[in-house]
Design a protein that fits this description.
Number of domains of chain A: 5
CATH architecture of the largest domain in chain A: 2-Layer Sandwich
Distance between the termini of chain A: 108 Å
Strand order of the largest sheet of chain A: 16-15-14-17-19-18
Oligomer: homodimer
Largest interface: A-B, 44 and 44 residues
Structural class of chain A: alpha/beta
Helix content of chain A: 25-40%
CATH topology of the largest domain in chain A: Nucleotidyltransferase, domain 5
Radius of gyration of chain A: 31 Å
Largest sheet of chain A: 6 strands, mixed
Chain lengths: 678, 678
Amino acid sequence: MPLSSKVSEARVVFTPSGKRGYFPIGTSVLQAAQNLGVDIDSVCGGRGICGRCQIVQAKGEFPKHRINSKAENISPLCETEKAYAERPKKTLAEGRRLSCATKILADCVIDVPPDSQVHQQIIRKDAEAFDIEIIPPVQLHYVEVWEPNMYDPSGDLRRLREALEREWQLKNLRFGPGMLLSLQRELREGNWKVTVAVDYLGQVIAVYPGFRESLCGLAVDVGSTTVAAHLCNLRTGEVLASAGVMNPQIRFGEDLMSRVSYVMMHPEGAAEMTASIRGALNDLFANVAKQVKGAVEDILEITLVANPIMHHLLLGIDPVELGGAPFALATDESVRVRARDLNLTLHTNTRCYVLPCIAGHVGADTAGMILSEAPYQREAITLLVDIGTNAEIVLGNNERLLAASSPTGPAFEGAQISCGQRAAPGAIERVRIDRETLEPHFQIIGCDLWSNETGFAKASKKIGVTGICGSGIIEVIAEMYLSGILSTDGVIHGYTAEKTPRVVADGRTFSYVLHKGDQEIHVTQNDVRAVQLAKAALYAGIRLLMEHLKVKIIDRIRLAGAFGSHIDVKYAMVLGLIPDCDLLQVSSAGNAAGTGARIALLNYESRKEIEEVVRKVEKVETAVESKFQEHFVNAMAFPHKTDSFPNLAKAVELPDEKNMQNQTDTENIRKKRRRRKN
Amino acid sequence: MPLSSKVSEARVVFTPSGKRGYFPIGTSVLQAAQNLGVDIDSVCGGRGICGRCQIVQAKGEFPKHRINSKAENISPLCETEKAYAERPKKTLAEGRRLSCATKILADCVIDVPPDSQVHQQIIRKDAEAFDIEIIPPVQLHYVEVWEPNMYDPSGDLRRLREALEREWQLKNLRFGPGMLLSLQRELREGNWKVTVAVDYLGQVIAVYPGFRESLCGLAVDVGSTTVAAHLCNLRTGEVLASAGVMNPQIRFGEDLMSRVSYVMMHPEGAAEMTASIRGALNDLFANVAKQVKGAVEDILEITLVANPIMHHLLLGIDPVELGGAPFALATDESVRVRARDLNLTLHTNTRCYVLPCIAGHVGADTAGMILSEAPYQREAITLLVDIGTNAEIVLGNNERLLAASSPTGPAFEGAQISCGQRAAPGAIERVRIDRETLEPHFQIIGCDLWSNETGFAKASKKIGVTGICGSGIIEVIAEMYLSGILSTDGVIHGYTAEKTPRVVADGRTFSYVLHKGDQEIHVTQNDVRAVQLAKAALYAGIRLLMEHLKVKIIDRIRLAGAFGSHIDVKYAMVLGLIPDCDLLQVSSAGNAAGTGARIALLNYESRKEIEEVVRKVEKVETAVESKFQEHFVNAMAFPHKTDSFPNLAKAVELPDEKNMQNQTDTENIRKKRRRRKN
């Protein structure tokens, strides 16, 4: 270190980054930080207005850096800081300083606390999930623009550009022609002081008169049944408000294929459905904005996930090609589009980012799930499953990733089940059957008591016991199987009718009566068959991917979506929805697609990441794989005591193969009876 | 040259480029040309469909290249070429070959005729103007896209991208989300063969099913009074159709400032005027398309020029800021915008390019004039003048370029003149006054005879003599001055009334009767004053620029616009509208602004050129230059016999300074009379 610099310069070390350098005495801490590329936020450009650039001076000896960081090594609290702290809603905690107003007087160590960093982390509650690093897609920049004068005639836009370059080193920003319509007013209203929102592609999204410091964005999960939106603070990642709404397209068909059929039958069908979903989104956005007493115009960025058909309808693309082979997507790229081009009434320049689709049956929602779960960052072979009318299946690790869609049908959603219903108050969601008496007890949504607990009748009276929802169906059938009512290949044993009045003849087959009351709730042989078909389709898809990936064992399983979040993974494994796996490694991923949308919203670099990952995902089309049918047939039966289910066998007492014999016996008995009758 | 290449390779020289290289025997001539970067057109990508890549083999000895180019050195006429020539509207002239179907068999010399080059030249009739090189902003690319299949699920867009890269090496093209709406249909309608229109920025503008070979664009000059459009073939530059329409905004105010006033007075005024001009443009476009039996959807690119106020109104920007100091433009950059964002009903992706404005009073029309005239490419000091309600003045050469706007008022357009009218049949446009008798004769628009020729009465009967248009006003006042009726400072000499009955007392001043008849047409003292004010404003602006540029002599003058095209430059100089200059170097530039729009349409590189030039233009604001007032006062008088007008003095007999004295005498006489009366 030359002597001269000792006199006029000081040494500054920033923590936690460890970045360090020499700066002339009197340099502001913010300037020094920016000069070194320290991650520190600022909206107002060092004017002491935004308070984003707060730092704390570390004090004491730092022998490693040869610094004795004393209080007097930085300038004392100044008027700017006092004025800042006195402003409404602003505080400057003890020890906190505005780095823009603090000057370096001698060697010092400066800590940038997490809330002053641009790239903050969101810690996810789910222990199995990675944290989210915030890299906002839109950032605010406050500037003071030179006023026009007659001696140097230049456009408002040019002077704004010059200010952005002068104060923020932002060059070659793109101003859409729409920006010009309001620019004059915004500049004059703000008395030539404006805050400019610039997105990660260098596109100017908004110009606000005066100083502005908060920005928000929306993560939207457009499902076939429900549409959910989360309003997030783009800086902190905080979820400010959430709302959901039924997808109004349900009136065109409950499942996706019937909606595609509607489009095929009605020339204006696609346009109708597009208008319908966009209308619902607008209502939803207004609802969300209202919750925070904000305006929809404050939402500058949206990310969307959707299955391929919803994706196409939302974008106004005819989905008919997705209704038949070869199921060609119009595009498998991500789409960035102005919200207003989708007739979404937000800020005039709000941009939407729609995650990429993967294949005709594997959509942007699956891309969202992959982004949220990031199996491509792990060595463990991970299985991701999102079960709906179609089950999306992703299998692999950081070396290879495969995806497929299996046509599970709507059984898991309670459709095609005689007493099935959506997950709503009154629906049975948990079931246990006594192995000896074969008597059931259950829980319904909206009541914490089990049906065999005292007070249940009273507590459930208002709600009623109205049906069985998806997780209830899984449990009742699994329990029926475990208690010997069901055979390994899914027949309700007729002979159990002799042991319990719960099993009753039902035409040529038998039913299990789960609940007697005003509304009798039973599980029919057809119900069991429907679940078997669904679970066999899912399992066959998983087997297919395991074969393609050449793995026999799956290290971890994550179940996504509403259904995946509610089922008891043990019962899912008992029925053979998912392959044998250490039960501790099977967990719910929550609404992973929606979380993916939120990650893409808060971290724009994740967009490139998922775009690249998705390109490398190997698509397996179950419909053209002859092996799929084979796996499907093999997967109809339920797991029984063999070497194939070591983990499951540890958790439950699986029926043995004899169970199968019993069933065949029952069938034989029945056949004999029939013959006699004839 | 190694021996091996002699055996398997041949030498090819292309003319006129002179590019040359060695190619394997059997290479197609097109491939060789493209490999060397020879400027040769192709839409179909070498499939023998478009016929754009025609070449001619040069035959005989080329000692310089050591080539003896014999007919047999290229493959003979093949089936592809015969099939091409047999198609309707297609011909293959004697000696012409399709380079894509012609193979190189031995050393040869190949000529690429001008019509096979992408960069063609348009020779302009105006000897003073540079030719236009065509570098189309949009080009067509025919591709065959792979069909989707279930084993390799990928989106239509991706497969189209792959085809464009495979066949045309086009990468990273931008497909707006709007493209996705019709892509599926276009690909399937064309049986996976489509023609893709790509603009110079890599933006895909249109996808046409099947093969398509022609493209057109529009150059539009949005004037305050009239709007004109030229439909051009984007490849050849040919003007396919033209049309004009009155600017419907006239109902909001005849001149621009009254339209701005309307906006100030009416909250919806700007929106009304924007809708009005856009509506007129849509009508105009439909008209132009109809002329060629085409559809407006075939127009993929538009360029527009306009003065600043029309520019703002067209783009939907409030023009009020342009109505008062400091006359700040919303933007002085060029604007590229989708036609549909301006509510222009063309192809859904048609792009508009609006040339940059220069300053609050110097618009994109002036930028168009500068581009058309290219004074920045000449050493000669050039003065460009476009006279309207404001006169736009550009002065300079390849070193410096200055621009200003002078408030000439509407006198030159026939307004503020007692018998003034627009240039229309019946308007006097040419005037001569006998130096001895002071009798006039004139020509009217719509009749070739002079008023003193036999047959004039009969010929003009139907049309009538209805008023004086701009060029007529210039001529009559100049002739009045040259024949001694007017004094050097613009007073109608009372004593001339004694010499001719044409000069009559008119209140306290005198008038000159130009035409007696049903409708008497005269020139009043006020008319002379109005013209003096207008010409003094123009001249003062020019003087100001000459001072700024520090030049005393102007090498050449180009008069643009309707008025500039019709006036006799000699008379313009007699009145002192323009400074003294060699009359041979003063000429009309026609509708230079419109030509600029056409150049920007046909040669996209010219856009960058004018954008750069415009940035360097030094803006002089007449309103803040104190010298302007001084020049203005000095410019009120007409040129007389001095050393200041050497060129003009050669062309006409200018009155001498005595003329001035006479006038003073006349005024004195009149004053005396008045005093006596009182």
